[in-house]
Each structure stands twice: as C-alpha cells, then as structure tokens.
C-alpha cells in the first residue's frame, strides 16, 4: 500500500509492525538452552554446595562409633537417613564430609593439569625446531606412561598413619592427567600460528608472549574449558579408585573410602545397599553433570551440534518467507 499527494508523487510504503526493521540491532550472546546443559549445571551447583556446607551440617562425626554393642549395619531410619556401617558410623555424615575431599582433590588436579597442558601444549605448538621436538617428546612420554602403576608408586610415599593432604593428592593425580590436553592444545595452536591475525601481530613486532597471550589463547578458551571439565572427571574417578584400592588412609573420608570399607565388609553380598549405593551414585552423577556441561560447550562452539529448536528464532522470518514464496518447478 502506498500513500501519495498527487500525480507523480513519490510513493511511500506503509510501515506496519510486520515490516518494521529496527534501525540498530543489538547482537546478544546466545548461550545453549538445551536441557542437558541445565541439568548438568544444576547437578554441579548442588555438589559444589554440598562440598562447601556438607562438613558443617553433618549430623555426626563420620569416624565416631555410635554404638559398641550392635555389629550389624542398620538400614536408613529417622535417626540415620542413609543408615549406618557395621560399627554404627553414620553413612550420611561420611558422604557429606567425603564430598568436600573428593571435589577438592578433583579441582586441584584439574587446575594443575590444565595449567601444564596450556603451558606445554601451546608452547610446543607455537615454537618450532628443537623446542617443539623436545616438548612433543615430553607429551608423548606422558601419554604412554601407565597411569595406575605410576599413581600406586607415588601414593606409596604418602604417610599411612596420618591424614594426607588433599592438595598433595591432587598434585599427584595431575602428574598423570595433563598429557592428553597438551596434545590437543598443541594441534590447535599449530593450526592458529599461520592465521592472518597471528601473522599480522608478528609483522608489527609484537613479542612472543603477547602473541600467545592475546592472540592465540583467547581462541583456545573453549578447548581449554573442555579439557578442564574432562580432567575434573578424571580426578574424581582416579581419586575414588585410589581410595577404593586402599592406597589412601582409611580414616581420610572420601566417597572412595566409603566404598573401600563397604567392600571390605562385603556390603554388596550381604544386601547392605545403603552403604555402597550413595557414594557410587554420587560419583556417577557428578561425572554425568560435568559431561553434560562439556556437551554444552561443544554446542556453543560448534553450531552443527545445536538442536534445531535453538535456531528457530534466528531463522524464523527467513523460513516463513520461503514457505510463502512460490514452489520451485521440478
């Protein structure tokens, strides 16, 4: 529809709400809205809160024997929500106290391993010649070393009669968890070092550390975040396995320690499910939450992995116009 004032008047199109186009469009950052990301984030927040406040709200001392007369584990009740062990220790208190240790060890291991991966992997990818060969050889050595025997040897130096430090355990686990991330970051850095923006920074005389810190590392943030999440999963599983095998002091409570005592007293064979199901389920749910968040990172950096519903808003107008247009012939 057009509006004119006379013959030869310029036609002015009638502007309606459907045809109005904003003069300035503000581009907003779209985060993944898939259910698996929300579920993973919610579970992770729950575990973090339990790790922070768990030891403070534990109803009993996890090592205290509440009764010396009954040597049979008691099922869940009003007094003990997750039951007791064979010496009447409260399983809920052990879960709450052990959750902080498990989370702390996993986060420390992931932070140290990720820092090593970034330092060695990016340096190897950006450097060339002898430096790249030596760092690549170090990465390959870290990949081929058997992790479990090395961890058994290293944890053998921990004092068995004292409460070990979670920070020290996390550092030991980090030694075996950095190589894979370093290899991935080296490959990604090799593909970035010949890009135009990196070459431009070299031409204008930027220093090497500034090129790596301000040009290459920002492009590697999604890869680093994904590596960090998987290393946390590795830390949780490795620490649980070490405690379950009895390589950690049995009085140092973690989810793996609970499983160790449950296995030593044949809880699964005797039907004491409340003793081993909660820690096993906690480890599984924590690993699931981190894996779901990692999938969300993949969706964010790779549009091909996004579900069709996430792009409807951005493609709705184009799709509607296409459906209203003529159908192609043939």
Describe the protein's architecture and organization.
The protein has 330 residues and is an all-alpha fold. The protein contains 13 helices and two strands; from the N terminus they run E-E-H-H-H-H-H-H-H-H-H-H-H-H-H. Helix 2 packs across helix 10 (255-264) and helix 7 (196-203) packs antiparallel against helix 8.
Q: Tags for this entry?
A:
13 helices, 2 strands, disordered N terminus, disordered C terminus
The run of helices and strands is: EEHHHHHHHHHHHHH
Strand order of the largest sheet: 1-2
CA-based gyration radius: 28 Å
- Which word captures the global form? elongated
Number of separate helices: 13
Structural class: mainly alpha
Low-confidence stretches: 1-29, 309-330
Summarize the structure.
This protein is an all-alpha fold.
């Amino acid at each position: 529809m057009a509006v004119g004032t006379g013959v030869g008047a310029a036609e002015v199109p009638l502007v309606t709400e459907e045809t109005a186009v904003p003069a300035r469009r503000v581009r907003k950052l779209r985060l993944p809205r898939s259910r698996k990301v929300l579920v993973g984030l919610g579970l992770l927040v729950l575990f973090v809160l339990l790790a922070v406040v768990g030891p403070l709200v534990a109803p009993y001392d996890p090592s205290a024997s509440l009764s010396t007369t009954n040597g049979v584990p008691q099922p869940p009740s009003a007094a003990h929500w997750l039951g007791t062990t064979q010496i009447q220790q409260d399983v809920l208190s052990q879960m709450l106290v052990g959750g902080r240790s498990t989370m702390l060890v996993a986060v420390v291991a992931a932070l140290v391993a990720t820092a090593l991966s970034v330092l060695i992997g990016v340096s190897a990818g950006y450097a060339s010649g002898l430096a790249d060969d030596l760092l690549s050889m170090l990465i390959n050595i870290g990949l081929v070393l058997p992790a479990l025997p090395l961890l058994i040897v290293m944890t053998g130096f921990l004092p068995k009669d004292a409460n070990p430090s979670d920070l020290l355990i996390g550092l030991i686990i980090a030694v075996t968890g950095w190589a894979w991330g370093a290899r991935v970051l080296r490959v990604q850095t090799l593909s970035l070092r010949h890009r135009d923006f990196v070459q431009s920074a070299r031409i204008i005389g930027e220093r090497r550390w500034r090129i790596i810190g301000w040009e290459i590392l920002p492009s590697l943030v999604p890869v680093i975040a994904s590596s960090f999440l998987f290393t946390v999963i590795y830390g949780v599983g490795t620490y649980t396995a070490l405690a379950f095998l009895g390589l950690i002091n049995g009085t140092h409570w973690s989810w793996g320690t609970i499983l160790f005592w449950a296995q030593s007293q044949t809880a699964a064979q005797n039907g004491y499910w409340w003793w081993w199901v909660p820690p096993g389920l906690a480890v599984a749910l924590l690993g699931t939450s981190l894996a779901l968040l990692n999938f969300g990172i993949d969706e964010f950096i790779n549009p091909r992995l996004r579900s069709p519903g996430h792009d409807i808003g951005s493609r709705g107008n184009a799709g509607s116009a296409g459906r209203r247009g003529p159908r192609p012939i043939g």
